[in-house]
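Fill in residues.
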C-alpha cells in the first residue's frame, strides 16, 4: 500500500519570530510545506526555504488573510492537509497522532473521516489558559486534500469539510499573544475586521445599538468568560482575557462608526 502523504500549509507575513518554531514542529511529518507569503520584508521567506518549503508570493491581504490561506490549501499536492498559522506549534504527541490517524484512516474503511478537529492550547500573558472557554479550543485543521477549505468570510472561522469529521486527542500549541503588546496588535487587527463586517452587514447606528455594543455586549461577554466559564481560575491573565474579550465589541463598534461617518 502506498504511503499516505501530508501537506503542511500556511499563510505568512513577517513571521520570522515564529516560523522556525512552527516548521521545526512539523518537519518530520510533512511531505510538503506550502507557504503563501504576503511579500514579507523580514526573513520569513528565507526561513521557509531553509525548510524546503514551496513559497508563493502574493500581495499581503491583512483584512482578508483567509484568502491567502485558501491559496496555500489549493496549492497543496499531497493526500492530506494540515493547515497551520505561523504562531502555532504541533506538539510531539500531536505529530505522532497525526501520522497514525491518517494511516489508520486510509487502511480502515470503518474510520473513513474526511477531517479532524484539533484541541488547541492558547498561550496568554505567560501561561496557557485552561478555562474561560479557551481550552480545549478545538480547531478544524486536518483534512483530506480536496475536501476542505475556508469560507473567507469571518475572523475566527473554521474550515468547511465535506464528509464526516473526528477529533484528535493531543494539543496544538498557540503562541499568538505571548505578551500584552502582541495581544493589543492582534486585537487591533481583529476589531478592524469586525468593524468591516458590521459595515457589510449594515449594522445600524443609533442609541440602542450604541448601548448594546458599548455596554451590554462587553459586560455579557465578560460575565460569560470570567464567571460562566471560570476564567478566574487562570488568575490575572484570565481576568485580562475576559475583560478585553468583552471590550472588543466596543472597540469594533467605534471603528465601525468611524468608517461609516468619518473615513480617513
Amino acid at each position: 500500500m502506498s504511503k499516505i502523504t501530508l501537506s503542511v500549509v500556511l499563510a505568512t507575513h513577517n513571521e520570522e519570530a515564529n516560523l522556525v518554531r512552527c516548521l521545526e514542529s512539523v518537519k518530520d511529518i510533512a511531505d510538503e510545506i506550502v507557504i503563501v507569503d504576503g511579500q514579507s520584508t523580514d526573513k520569513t521567506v528565507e526561513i521557509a526555504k531553509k525548510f524546503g518549503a514551496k513559497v508563493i508570493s502574493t500581495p499581503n491581504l491583512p483584512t482578508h488573510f483567509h484568502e491567502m490561506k485558501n491559496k496555500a490549501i489549493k496549492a497543496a499536492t499531497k493526500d492530506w492537509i494540515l493547515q497551520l498559522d505561523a504562531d502555532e506549534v504541533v506538539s510531539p504527541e500531536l505529530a505522532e497522532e497525526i501520522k497514525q490517524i491518517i494511516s489508520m484512516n486510509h487502511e480502515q474503511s470503518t474510520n473513513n473521516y474526511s477531517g479532524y478537529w484539533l484541541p488547541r492550547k492558547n498561550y496568554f500573558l505567560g501561561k496557557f489558559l485552561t478555562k474561560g472557554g479557551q481550552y480545549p479550543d478545538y480547531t478544524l485543521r486536518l483534512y483530506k486534500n480536496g475536501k476542505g477549505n475556508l469560507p473567507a468570510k469571518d475572523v475566527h472561522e473554521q474550515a468547511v469539510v465535506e464528509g464526516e469529521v473526528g477529533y484528535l486527542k493531543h494539543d496544538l500549541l498557540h503562541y499568538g499573544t505571548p505578551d500584552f503588546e502582541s495581544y493589543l496588535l492582534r486585537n487591533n487587527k481583529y476589531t478592524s475586521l469586525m468593524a468591516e463586517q458590521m459595515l457589510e452587514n449594515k449594522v445600524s447606528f443609533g442609541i440602542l445599538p450604541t448601548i448594546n455594543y458599548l455596554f451590554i455586549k462587553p459586560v455579557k461577554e465578560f460575565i460569560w468568560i470570567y464567571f460562566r466559564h471560570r476564567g478566574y481560575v487562570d488568575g490575572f491573565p484570565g481576568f485580562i482575557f475576559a475583560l478585553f474579550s468583552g471590550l472588543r465589541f466596543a472597540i469594533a463598534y467605534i471603528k465601525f462608526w468611524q468608517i461609516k461617518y468619518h473615513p480617513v
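Helices lie at 16-24, 44-50, 65-75, 92-107, 180-200, 207-228, 235-261.
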